[in-house]
Amino acid sequence: MSKKFFIKIVTDPDVDQRKCVVGIACAAQAIKDGHDVDVFFAADGVKMIHAAYLHRINEQGNLPDGMIIGMLKVITEGASNVYCSTGSQAANGVTKENADEMLLEGYSDWMTWSGPPGVIALSAASDVQLVY
Predict the structure, then answer these.
(1) Minimal CB count within 10 Å: which of 70, 79, 102, 121?
(2) What is the DSSP string of 73-84?
(3) What is the pLDDT of residues 79-105, one digit of tens each?
(4) What is the Cα gyration radius of the chain?
């Protein structure tokens, strides 16, 4: 039976990268399993959609080559909604004005800028909530 998942990535990947990767892997798996998935990147978890940051993770060699980008592609192409915190992005140097240079390519096609109202709406509509 399909469920409505709300997955929030809030951990700073500089502190616990594995936790962020597990959250992204769970979101991608839930999509592959046919669930309706909403993902919200907030706090320092927003780094996980910064292009340069993801390329550094890939180059570190701790994960198979291309794995993190592949999982995020599943999310950006298959999630019902992908949100990011406007304030958290700003705290990490990303604004709507410079996002084209900073975020994953094509972000404007799949991402909604938001804040607490988006978190509340997505969590209220979900059956299952996972926070990483």
Answers:
(1) 70
(2) HHHHHH-SEEEE
(3) 999 999 999 999 999 999 999 999 999
(4) 14
Compute the residue count for the chain. 132
DSSP per-residue string spanning 16-83: HHHHHHHHHHHHHHHHHTT-EEEEEE-GGGGGGGBHHHHHHHHHHTSS-TTHHHHHHHHHHHH-SEEE
105-124 pLDDT tens trace: 999 999 999 999 999 999 99
CATH number among 3.40.50.300, 3.40.1410.10, 3.30.360.10, 3.40.1260.10, domain 4-131: 3.40.1260.10
**Residue 102 tokens, joined:** 């900073």
* pLDDT at 62 exceeding the cut of 90: no
Q: What is the pLDDT of residue 1?
A: 85
